[in-house]
């Protein structure tokens, strides 16, 4: 089965052609990082059901429209807020089409559900993306006190992207670590990236 292109050329190379169909992917990042650019780029290359658990539908749609790397016509935005977030997200699963994507932004409110309920949700999600040869992207905001269910999120994931942002003097450095790639080869070094209008490799200097 052909890989699913993530829309980011450097990841195509690192992942040997793209994301394996049926993958559950976690993108870990700081809340103040440019991870939204990753999220929008992943969505912009295929039909996507975008579930927002924090922002409003209008806010997400405005952000998508401002992104030059995104085909907004391919994205349908759903809201899943409050105590019913996990149930509302589950209702979106039947809408996934063949080789499409589901994006949950962010997964944190769902992680605060009962452990057994959360595990069932991830099982159902994983089954659905396998059935459709699609992909699920879980945007996981890194906090100082991540919910205990974050461990389940990462255990269930087939692929983990860890975006790390550091401010040094007048520079902002973005490095992407891929600590987990089930069935694939994990890069032995972090990728240094530029996050501007699009995601590209930063070749300005070597990684220390």
What do these coordinates show?
With 208 residues, the chain is an alpha/beta fold. It has helices at residues 9-14, 35-43, 57-66, 85-90, 108-111, 115-132, 150-156; strands spanning 23-30, 48-52, 75-79, 101-105, 135-142, 159-168, 171-181, 191-195, 199-201. It has a nine-stranded mixed β-sheet with strand order 3-2-4-5-1-6-7-8-9, sandwiched between helices. The longest helix has 18 residues, at 115-132. The mean pLDDT is 89.
Provide a short characterization of the protein structure.
The chain is built from seven helices and nine strands, in the order H-E-H-E-H-E-H-E-H-H-E-H-E-E-E-E. Strand 2, helix 3 and strand 3 form a beta-alpha-beta unit. The protein is 29% helix and 29% strand.
Give a topology summary.
Blueprint: H1 9-14, E1 23-30, H2 35-43, E2 48-52, H3 57-66, E3 75-79, H4 85-90, E4 101-105, H5 108-111, H6 115-132, E5 135-142, H7 150-156, E6 159-168, E7 171-181, E8 191-195, E9 199-201
Parallel strand pairs: 1-5, 1-6, 2-3, 2-4, 4-5
Antiparallel strand pairs: 6-7, 7-8, 8-9
Distance between the amino and carboxyl termini: 37 Å
CATH overall fold name: Rossmann fold
How many DSSP-defined strands?
Answer: 9
At the fourth CATH level, what is the homologous superfamily? P-loop containing nucleotide triphosphate hydrolases
The CATH top-level class label:
Alpha Beta
Relative helix content: 25-40%
The general outline is: globular
- Percentage of residues in strands: 25-35%
- Listing every helix as H and every strand as E from the N terminus to the C terminus, the arrangement reads HEHEHEHEHHEHEEEE
The largest sheet is: 9 strands, mixed
Identify low-pLDDT runs.
none
Average residue-wise pLDDT: 89
- The rounded Rg comes to 16 Å
Total helix count? 7
**At CATH's second level, what is the architecture?**
3-Layer(aba) Sandwich
Q: Total domains, how many?
A: 1
């Amino acid at each position: 089965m052909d890989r699913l292109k993530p829309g980011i050329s450097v990841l195509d190379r690192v992942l040997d052609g793209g994301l394996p169909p049926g993958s559950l992917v976690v993108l870990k990042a700081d809340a103040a990082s440019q991870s939204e650019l990753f999220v929008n780029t992943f969505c912009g290359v295929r039909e996507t059901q975008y579930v927002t658990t924090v922002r409003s539908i209008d806010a997400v749609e405005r952000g998508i429209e401002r992104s030059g790397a995104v085909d907004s016509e391919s994205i349908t935005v759903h809201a899943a807020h409050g105590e019913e977030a996990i149930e509302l997200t589950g209702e979106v699963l039947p809408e996934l089409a063949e080789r499409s994507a589901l994006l949950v932004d962010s997964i944190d409110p769902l992680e605060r559900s009962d452990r057994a309920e959360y595990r069932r949700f991830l099982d159902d999600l994983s089954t659905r993306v396998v059935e459709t040869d699609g992909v699920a992207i879980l945007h996981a905001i890194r906090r100082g006190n991540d919910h205990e269910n974050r461990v389940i999120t990462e255990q269930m994931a087939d692929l983990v992207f860890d975006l790390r942002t550091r401010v040094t003097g007048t520079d902002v450095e973005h490095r992407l670590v891929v600590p987990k790639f089930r069935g694939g080869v994990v890069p032995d070094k972090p990728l240094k990236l530029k996050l501007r209008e699009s995601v590209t490799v930063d070749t300005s200097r070597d990684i220390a």
